[in-house]
C-alpha cells in the first residue's frame, strides 16, 4: 500500500470546535460544569498552599510562635484533603463524560457508515474506517480529560498562584514572567507543525489498521503461499512510517512545555538575584520570598501544561477533521422525497432494466443493458467472468445506481421507491455468505422478531442446516465465529439459504448459491431452492450451466450487454455464446471439474 498524502486542513478550527460542542458535548453541560467546578477547587488549593508558606517561615520557623504550628498544620491538611477529594470527583465525572460522549460519537459514525453506498466502500478500506471509529474518537477522551483539566484546574491554579505572587511582590512577579511573551512566536510555529504531523500520524495509523485487517482475513492464503516473510516485511514498513510520524508529532507536543522552561530559567535567575539582595538589606522577609518562590515554582507547572494545550488541541483537531469529513460525506443512495412509488405485490414483481450504463470509476461494466424477468418465473443470468452479472443484482437492490437508463419493478422506477421498502422485496443468497460472530440462530433471523420456533425449524430443515446444528452441543445457539469462521463453506452457505427462506421475500436473488456445497448437499439444497422459487420472481447467477437447466428463461451476458436469451434447449440450438460456454464446460473431464470445485 502506498502512502496516503495528508490532506491540508479544509475545515476551520472554529467550525470543528462548534461541531464537537453542539453535536456531542453541549447536551451534557451539567457534567461539564461539575467537572470544571471540581477542577477549579483542585487548582485553587495550590494558591492556598503557597500562601501558607509565609506564616510557616516567618511566624513558626523564624519567630518560633508555637500556637501557629497547629493552625498552619491543620490548614495545610485541610487543603490537601480538599484537593484530593476534588481530584477524585473530577476523575469520576470526566471519565463518565468522556466515555459516554465517545460512545455516542462511535455510534453516530457507524450509523452513518451503514448508510453509505458501495462506491464509498471502494474508496475506503475497512482498516481505514476502523481506525476512524476507534482511533480518531480517542481524541475526544483527550479533549475531555486532558484539555479540560488544563483549562479548569491549571487555569485556576495559574490565577490563584499569580495572585499570591503579586500579593507578595509585584516586581518579583514581573521579573519572573517577563521572558514568556518572547516565546509566543516559537510556540505558534510548533503548533502548525503539530497539526501537520498529527494528521500524518492518523493517516499512517489507518494504513496500519488496514494492513492488519488484510493479514488476518487472508491468513490462510498467506500461509499456503508461503509469503509470511513478505507480509511481515510489508507490515514492518507500515509500522516504521507510523512510528516516524507519531514520534514527530509527539516531539512537537513536548517542545511547547520546553519553551516555557527556557522562560522559567531566565526569570528564576533574575528573581533570586533581586529578591536575595532585598532580603539581605531587610526590606523583604524570608517568609515573603519563600511564599513567592513557592507560588512561582508551582505556577510554571500549570503554565507548562497550558502551553501544551495548543499542542493537544491541534492533535485533537487533526482527528476531529477526519471524523467531521466522514460525517459530512453524504450517502449518494438514499430514499427519494415522498410521495414514493408503490411497492408491487408478490404477483407483480416483473423486472425491466432498460438502457442501463454503469462504470466503476472509468471502467465500464454495463453498456446499454436491456433485461427483462417475468414475475413468478426463474430467470438465469450466465456469461463469462466480468460480463456484469453481479452488477445487475447490485442495481436491483440499489446498492449502486446507474449512470444512465432505468430499472423498474412492477412497472415502477425503483429510484422513486422508499429504500427500505425496495430492499424488503429481496432475499439474497450469494457465493460469499456474510455471517457474523453471533449465534447461528441470530445469523438466520437477521433481525426478524417474533418468529415461531416451528417456522424457524422448517427453514433450517429446508436448507439442511439442522443436519449439522443438531450435532452441535449448543445447537442453533452455537456462535458462527468471526465472518462465520467456525463453520465450513458449505455450512455457511446453508445458513444463508435458511435466512432467505425465512425472509420469504417476493424476489429471490441467487448468486452461485450452491457453489460451496458438495454434490449431495447441492442436490438437496437445489431442491429446496426450487421449491422456494415457486411463485416468486427468481434471478439466478450461475457459472455451472447444469444448475440453470430448469430456468424458464436464460439470459446470456457478455461485455455488459445481453447477447442471447431463451430456454436451455433453444440457446443450445442457436449455437452461439451459450452453446460455446456449454461445450467448453462439459468438454472438461468430470474428474477435473470435481477438482476445480
Question: What key phrases describe this protein's structure?
Answer:
ABC transporter transmembrane region fold; disordered C terminus; single chain; 597 residues; 2 domains; alpha/beta; disordered N terminus; Rossmann fold
CATH architecture of the largest domain: Up-down Bundle
Structural classification: alpha/beta
| Cα-to-Cα separation, first versus last residue | 32 Å
Tell the overall outline: elongated
Low-confidence residue ranges = 1-9, 589-597
CATH class of the largest domain: Mainly Alpha
Blueprint of the fold:
Elements: H1 13-25, H2 29-51, H3 53-62, H4 66-113, H5 118-123, H6 126-136, H7 138-168, H8 170-177, H9 184-217, H10 219-225, H11 228-280, H12 286-307, H13 309-328, E1 351-360, E2 363-373, E3 378-382, H14 389-396, E4 404-409, E5 412-413, H15 419-423, E6 426-429, H16 440-445, H17 453-462, H18 466-469, H19 489-503, E7 507-511, H20 519-533, E8 537-541, E9 553-558, E10 561-566, H21 568-574, H22 577-586, H23 590-596
Parallel strand pairs: 3-8, 3-9, 6-7, 7-8
Antiparallel strand pairs: 1-2, 1-4, 4-5, 9-10
Helix pairs in contact: 1-13, 2-4, 2-7, 2-12, 3-4, 3-12, 4-7, 6-9, 6-13, 7-8, 7-12, 7-13, 8-11, 9-11, 9-13, 11-12, 17-19, 19-20, 21-22
Compact overview of the structure:
This protein has 597 residues and is of the alpha/beta class.
